[in-house]
Design goal:
By secondary structure, the chain is α/β, with parallel strands linked by helices. The chain contains 9 helices and 14 strands. A 7-stranded parallel β-sheet has the order 3-2-1-4-5-6-11, with helices on both faces. Strands 12-9-14 form a 3-stranded mixed β-sheet.
Length: 301
C-alpha cells in the first residue's frame, strides 16, 4: 500500500524536496503551511492545507486522516519576532504531537537545529546537554523545548519520534537570503556585494543527502527516541566558500569586512556525525564543491 505522509512546512525549501521525493515513490502527500506554495515549488499531486499549527482547534478539524509519517519543518522564519518564533517552533510542535500521540503513526520527525546546543564547542555531540534557560535566542529555546517535550512523550507513552538537528542545508529552490544561494545570485549577476570578514567556519550539507537521511529514519526503528546530528562533520571557512563560488562562476565581486559579526557569533560550528553513521549507516555523498557546481547549473537554467 502507498504510504501517507503529512509534511508541516511542505511549501518551504526542505518541505518541497521531501514532498517531491515522496511523490516519486507514489506516496500520498499532504502539506500544512501558513502560505500557498510559490509557483516554482508547486507540486500538483500534493494536497495543500493552509493552517496555523499554533492553533490547535482548526488543526483537529482538518487533520482527520491517519498518516504513516509526520515530518515537522514548520516554524516562523523571521526569528526577530520572538513571540511568533516561540509559538510556531514550540507550541506548534506540541500541538502536533498531542494530536498524533494517540494515533498509530510510524514516526513523528522533528526537524531541530544546531542552535539547540547553544555555546557548546564544536564538534557538537548529541549527548551534550543544554539548559533551556541558558540559551540566548528565542528560536534556540523553542527548538530545545520542542525536543524535550517529544522525548518526554517517547519515554512516557512510547511516542515514535526522532529529532534531526540540521546544520546548514543548501540546494535548488532555496530562498536567496541564505549564504550559498545569495552568493551564487550575486556572482551570476556580476554584482559588487558586501560580506563579513568571512572568518567563520560552517558545515554545509547538500539537500539530497538530507533527504536520504530522512528516508533512512522512516525505515529504521532504531532512530526512534533519538536525537541525531545531520551535517557533513567538516567545517568550511566562509570566505573560502564565497571565493570558490566567485572563481567557479568567474563573475562577482565580494567585498569582505563590510558586514560586522554579531556579538554572539560562534566562529566554528559543526557536528559530530558518528551517531547517525552508526544508527542509520548514513554518510553524506555530495562534497561541497560538487554541490555548489550542481546548484550553479540549476541557477543557470
Amino acid at each position: 500500500m502507498n504510504k501517507k505522509i503529512l509534511i508541516i512546512g511542505g511549501t518551504g525549501f526542505l518541505g518541497y524536496h521531501l514532498a517531491k521525493k515522496c511523490i516519486l515513490k507514489k506516496w500520498k502527500v499532504t502539506s500544512i503551511s501558513t502560505n500557498s506554495p510559490k509557483k516554482t515549488r508547486f507540486l500538483p499531486k500534493v494536497k495543500y492545507l493552509t493552517l496555523d499549527i499554533t492553533k490547535k482547534k482548526p488543526l483537529l478539524k482538518k487533520i482527520k486522516s491517519n498518516f504513516d509519517y509526520v515530518v515537522n519543518f514548520g516554524g516562523y522564519v523571521n526569528h526577530s519576532e520572538k513571540l511568533k518564533t516561540y509559538k510556531s517552533h514550540y507550541i506548534g510542535c506540541k500541538n502536533l504531537a498531542d494530536i498524533f500521540k494517540n494515533r498509530k503513526i510510524k514516526l513523528f520527525m522533528q526537524i531541530g537545529s544546531s542552535v539547540e546546543y547553544g555555546n557548546i564547542k564544536s564538534p557538537q555531540k548529541e549527548n551534550n546537554k543544554t539548559d533551556v534557560n541558558k540559551l540566548k535566542s528565542t528560536y534556540g529555546k523553542a527548538k530545545l523545548m520542542a525536543t524535550n517535550y517529544l522525548l518526554k512523550l517517547n519515554k512516557l507513552h512510547n511516542f515514535p519520534c526522532t529529532i534531526l538537528r540540521l546544520y546548514l542545508v543548501y540546494g535548488p529552490y532555496q530562498n536567496t537570503n541564505r549564504l550559498i544561494p545569495h552568493t551564487l545570485n550575486e556572482c551570476l549577476n556580476d554584482n559588487v556585494f558586501n560580506c563579513s570578514a568571512g572568518k567563520q567556519y560552517r558545515d554545509f550539507l547538500f539537500v539530497n543527502d538530507l533527504m536520504r537521511a530522512i528516508f533512512k529514519c522512516f525505515y529504521n526503528k532504531q532512530s526512534i527516541g533519538e536525537i541525531m546530528n545531520i551535517g557533513t562533520g567538516k567545517p568550511y571557512n566562509i570566505k573560502k566558500v564565497i571565493l570558490f563560488i566567485k572563481n567557479n562562476i568567474k563573475l562577482g565581486n565580494p567585498v569582505f569586512g563590510k558586514i560586522p559579526l554579531r556579538k554572539d557569533e560562534i566562529l566554528r560550528l559543526y557536528p559530530d556525525i558518528s551517531k547517525v553513521k552508526k544508527i542509520l549507516n548514513w554518510h553524506p555523498h555530495t562534497s561541497l564543491q560538487k554541490g555548489i557546481k550542481t546548484l550553479t547549473r540549476h541557477y543557470k537554467i
